Amino acid sequence: MKRTLIAISLVVMLIAGALAACAAPVPAPVPAPAPAPAPVPTPAPAPTPAPAELPQLELKMNGLHPAGVPWTESGAEKPAEWIMECVPRAKVTVYPGNTLVEYANAYIGAQEGIVDCTLAYAPSTSGAFPLHELIQQPGLFPNIATSNVVLLDLYREYPIFREEFSPKVKHISTSVLLRSDLHSRMAIRNLDELEGKVVGANHDLGMRAMELLGASATMVSVAEVYTPLERGVIDAALVPGAVVPMWNLHEVATYHELLGLNPAPMFFFFNRETWNKFTEEEQNILEWRLYQGMQYAQNIPASQMLMNSMEKDLTAPGQEIIYWPQEDMDRMKELLAPLRDEWAEDMEAMGYPGKEILERAMWLVKAYTYG
Fold this sequence. Notes:
This protein is an alpha/beta fold. Helix content is 42%, strand content 16%.
């Protein structure tokens, strides 16, 4: 019996050991994680420095014309206002014509920094822009609107036009102004009656045109033409009708022959160093505003002044507007054609495609006037 109990005990012990061996092992206890290190405070970023305040700009605007005349308002006072509106840090002072530089030296004054911005009349620039002399050819363009549109097309198609401008200036805009007419002391009713007359013109192409038409010509500026007319030194002046009342020329020249010759470009420039004082953003705003504004300020007032002059001053008692017979106008254009051909030859000699440009300009004139 005793042996039996011992045997049973051994069997139970063996079974218990086997069951213990099959059971899943108890994992060792996981040690507690170490405490996280205390966060290191991040220093606050340094404040961004405020942009330096831009300096104030004091600009000298050349008025080109005397104080009180419409051209000074539209060509100097208005752009001065636009500059100050677009760039509040700029103060622009307008100086009447011949105060800082003489009329004929406006372009030189812009290059040399005598003036910060100015208009410049192409015929007064002593051959600085030979390509632009195409626009001044007598008898080529029928009106200022066609002249301006054709010039814009030529600018796009022939970048060499803009390359004529000095690197010392920033070119903003070009406006083609009114054509010139004869204003005479005696009636000149046709081409034959012009023969032998003495005509004062304010640029070389006008003089040459008068000579081809049979007159004698002399150089006289618009500002100085009154006295030669009054004294009979010249018989007529070749100037735009819009400037006649401005200089009271109708007091001494009571006949007005409408020939429509020699339109002339008027440029608007900044001195390059002055232009570079503006920020890029200011330059973009100014260039857009002044380009748009100068087209308006030059062309629309010029046309309105011409119409006011024709409807009031040139038709007042004692004044007479004269239209030449159509056959004389056609003959005049034929007589003047060699001037434009000569221009094309001169441009070819200078390395420009003068003949191609002239042909293109004449095609554009036909396209725009027909339409």
